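Re: that chain you flagged

S.,

Sorry for the slow reply, it's been a week of failed gels. I finally had a moment to sit down with the sequence you sent. For the record, here it is as I used it:
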Amino acid sequence: MIEKKRKIIIFTCHSKKIGLGHFVRSQRLYHELKKNFKCEFYVNKNKDFIKKQLNKQNNFALIIFDFKKYDKFFLKYKKNLHFILFDQNKIKKKNIISFNPLNLKKNGNFNGPKWFAFSNNFFKKKNKKFFKKKFNIFISQGGTDSNKNLKKIINSINLNNPKIDRVFVKVPRLRYLENNNKKIINLFNINNLFNILNKTDIAISGCGNFSFEINFFKIPTIYISNEQDEIKRGKLLESKGIGNFYKINNLNKMITELNLIMDNKNYYEKMVSKRGNYFQQNGLANIKKKINKIFKNNEIK
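Prediction finished late last night. Pasting the structure tokens below so you have them in one place:
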């Protein structure tokens, strides 16, 4: 392993509009990398702050940007700086590696679940998913529910259905939902996502980071979103047979799909088996190996 004197600086962001996905991924990466490298972690810093930090770097350093949108100003910096960018494929340069974990297409060396930062505790022994008389449902629309879809989804579900045991709902803040049905369990700060997904039987999810984490557990999933990037990803997931995608204005079709999953044992088991081991990748370890190679070779390849 490379000595800890090697420096890594991580910049990321989060907001109600862009969600928490970039922040959560970068935080996981920071906690993993700081075991072996000298790491700094900055959140929601402006361009002037970032420029100041980059100007300080006199020796070889690796800069990790995890943003929704990128500014090319950092490309002007010294050749001894190397960069990792997440979720982009437009900026290309010899000293840049672009990881696109959410890109399910095959046109790239660093695309797909192989580079997704799944939590380390996901690799504990998991419960197998099987057809039951009663189901636990997990519902998520990202960390912030930026399009306010959660209430629409929950109001469309017949919570009196005896086949529904509990409904775990990832909410952006306390008292976010007005529904007081005893079956609903609001999850604000999820300290252990493994425990929640390990006892989830069916999921209704957007097509962002949560959809990959849900699929890691081979949970039959229905995808709902009206974000342009997520719509494309949802259709790709559907084309692979890994759940069906619906826009938020097609909730009637979503309910038909949900009832089919709960009523048809063969269909449920097919949904589980379709996932195989496609999502079960140790992305944190893979990224760390690549970073180690960068430091070893002192170059981007």
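What I noticed first: Residues 7-118+281-297 form a domain with the Rossmann fold fold (CATH 3.40.50).

Talk soon,
D.
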